[in-house]
Write a structure and sequence with these properties.
- The protein has 156 residues and is mainly α.
- Helices cover 90% and strands 0% of the residues.
- It has one domain.
- Helix 1 packs antiparallel against helix 2 and helix 1 runs antiparallel to helix 3.
- The model has no long low-confidence stretch (mean pLDDT 85).
Length: 156
């Protein structure tokens, strides 16, 4: 009778261990998939924020150029003077500096998005590496072997 109870306990323990490992692996897989989707969304968000920031920078450039032209005109300078005039060069310098800012914004966004994309790939790999069935079977076999060893030790 005692050995029957012992065997029943070992079987129940083995089953619980297998089910627990299966559930744990399933949850790890679901979590990794969620994290991958989150990272993908963050990469998209980084690109969208960069576009808005670049548009804002273009507006600022246009405002700065307009204000500079107005100041030049207010000081009695010819705004639409010859192509090689100092006024034209100053305006061109403002535009180039603004465009460099736009390139910096785009480059920073690309790096940020690339980091999120790398995280997404890592999480997808983690999700693929999780196999709940194998985890459950492996844990069950391990628990069964351990239980058998315990049974043999106790029963002799």
């Amino acid at each position: 009778m005692c050995s029957t109870l012992l065997i029943a306990g070992l079987v129940a323990s083995t089953a619980l261990t297998a089910v627990s490992s299966f559930q744990q692996s399933s949850m790890a897989k679901a979590q990794a998939k969620y994290q991958a989707k989150l990272a993908e969304n963050q990469a998209i968000d980084a690109a969208q924020r960069a576009e808005a920031e670049k548009d804002e920078q273009r507006r600022k450039i246009a405002q700065t150029v307009g204000a500079a032209r107005a100041r030049q005109a207010a000081n009695g300078l010819l705004v639409d003077d010859t192509p090689d005039s100092t006024n034209k060069h100053l305006i061109e310098d403002l535009i180039v500096a603004g465009e460099l800012d736009i390139l910096r914004i785009a480059d920073n966004a690309r790096r940020e998005a690339s980091g999120y994309e790398a995280q997404a790939k890592l999480h997808k790999f983690q999700a693929k590496s999780q196999n709940p069935l194998l985890a459950g079977l492996g844990a069950g076999v391990g628990a069964a072997a351990s239980g058998y060893s315990t049974y043999k030790t106790l029963i002799g």
